[in-house]
C-alpha cells in the first residue's frame, strides 16, 4: 500500500507533536521530517492547526469505522468485545504518537474542530457501550460508559508503559482490558 504525501505529512507531524509538542513544532520542521519544504505543506493543509485537526479527525473516524465493522462481523457480544479490544490494542501499539498528541494537544483545536473530534469519540465509545450492555443488560448506561472509558484508557496508556515488546504487551493488554470490561458483570457480587 502506497502512502500519500498527505499521509507522510500527518505521520511526521504526529511524531513531532508527540515528541516536541505542538507549540514548538514549526511547519518547516514538519516539512523537513516529511521530506518536503515547509511551504509545500500548504498544498495539503491550510496551516498547522488544520493539519492537527485533520490528524485527530481522521484517526477518530478510522476508529469509529473499525469499531462498527468489529461489531457487524461478530456473532455475539463476547466476540464483539474481544474484537473491539484487539482493534484498540493494535491501534495503540501501532500509533502511540497519535495517542500522545490527542491527550496533549486536543485543546489546540478551535471549538468546531474539537467538537467534531469529541463527537466522533463519543460515537466510538457508544459502539463499545452498546456491546457491553448487550452482554450485561442490567448495567446502567453511565456505568457501562465508565467501564468502556477505563478499558480504552488502560489500552491507551501504552505510550507510557515501559519497554515491553508489542508481542508481549499486546496479549497482556487484551486480557487486562477484557477483564476490566467483564468485571462490570460482577457488579454487586462483592458489595
**Radius of gyration from the CA trace?**
18 Å
Give the mean pLDDT.
Answer: 93
The termini sit apart by: 52 Å
SSE run: HHHHHHHH
Class computed from helices, strands and strand pairing = mainly alpha
Tally of DSSP β-strands: 0
The gross shape turns out to be elongated
Description:
With 191 residues, the protein is mostly helical. 71% of the residues lie in helices and 0% in strands. It has 8 helices and no strands. It has helices at residues 5-19, 27-34, 48-73, 77-94, 96-105, 111-135, 141-155, 166-183. Helix 3 packs antiparallel against helix 4 and helix 7 (141-155) runs antiparallel to helix 8 (166-183). It starts with a helix and ends in an 8-residue tail after the last helix. The model has no long low-confidence stretch (mean pLDDT 93).
Write the layout of secondary structure elements.
Layout (H helix, E strand, L loop, with lengths): L4 H15 L7 H8 L13 H26 L3 H18 L1 H10 L5 H25 L5 H15 L10 H18 L8
Helix pairs in contact: 1-2, 1-5, 3-4, 3-5, 3-6, 4-6, 4-8, 6-7, 7-8
Describe this structure in a few short sentences.
With 191 residues, the protein is mainly alpha-helical. The protein has helices at 5-19, 27-34, 48-73, 77-94, 96-105, 111-135, 141-155, 166-183.
